[in-house]
Amino acid sequence: MTSTGSTGRPSLLLTGIGELSTLDPELGLLHDAAVVVDGGRVAWAGPANRAPAADASHDVGGRAVIPGFVDSHSHLVFAGDRAEEFAARMTGTPYSAGGIRTTVAATRAATDEQLAANLARLVAEMQRQGTTTVEVKSGYGLTVHDEARSLAIARQVTEETTFLGAHVVPPEHADDPASYVDLVTGPMLEACAPHAKWVDVFCERGAFDEDQARAILLAGRAKGLEGRLHANQLGPGPGVGLACELGLAAVDHCTYLDDADVDALASSGTTATLLPGVEFSTRSPYPDARRLLDAGVHVALASDCNPGSCYTSSMPLCIALGVREMGMSPAEALAAATTGGARALRRTDVGHLGVGAVADLVVLDAPSYLHLAYRPGVPLVRDVLVRGRRSVL
Length: 393
Ligand SMILES: [Zn+2]
Description:
alpha/beta, eight-stranded mixed beta sheet, globular, binds zinc ion
């Protein structure tokens, strides 16, 4: 095989793969496998003894290889942390949406350089744990200027950027939330749309109600931003129904669902993104992944990495929690963390290792992907290829 990729880089044969999970289709398990990467894409995948030649080769020594994780939900543009709030919560103070305001104050006070450096640190931390595609939201600025700069900074690390001006009503609008919705759907959206692919709303008691969420999602759509939604996290609510009604790509959290919510998800194309790190970190009941999967709902797992309710960046932890606490099989959890996340971002080029996919691969220091759930808390990521390039770990 010659260098045919658009980058002109030499092709690479990754061989000695003890277990390859292509996720194309489903788990797509192969043993004694090889992958050829060319031009940043998967050019070939199959049995090692039938692999075509390439310019260079690398033997992974019988280890397992999986697609890079697609983390479709994170809040990484912020300053400060809330370790004290976490400690208080663990000794009896319940989580509420209002804690977001602490991070808003710190974020507004930070420079662009400080925000960008913290974001880069977290994205690198994610990559060391196997995440190769990440969605990043704004939502800790809550002024026209601070939301727009948050998204401009996020755009430097990912194309999956989400305008979340409707995260919480900031203190200066507390007496008149309607004026804040006007700001979000007007000048703030105008300033943020050039830097964002998505629009999102925290539809929850204490944040934004159904009518406000609908207005913000439709205003975003009119500006070319497709919608996603935070909903049904802290209690039952109208968010999941609204997400399905509007045909959003994803509705995230889905912890408190009634039968109508599950039916709506099953009959819509909307992905239910489960964020078990939140329930772990707030000591709350987990969403019921088994019920959703059995109903035929598309399920994704994501980190929701943020400084308040869940400050983990670890997709392997989410997989372990999905299996241990939410009734998922290890195969279902891996799929939710790869193809599920891709679906939640309406991407078909990442989250699997079919021919033509972006060559985002993770080599595990383990003989099987099963070890992701079987060995929780153990750093199993040995090597990561991002667009076919070995990243330095
Ligand atoms: Zn979130």
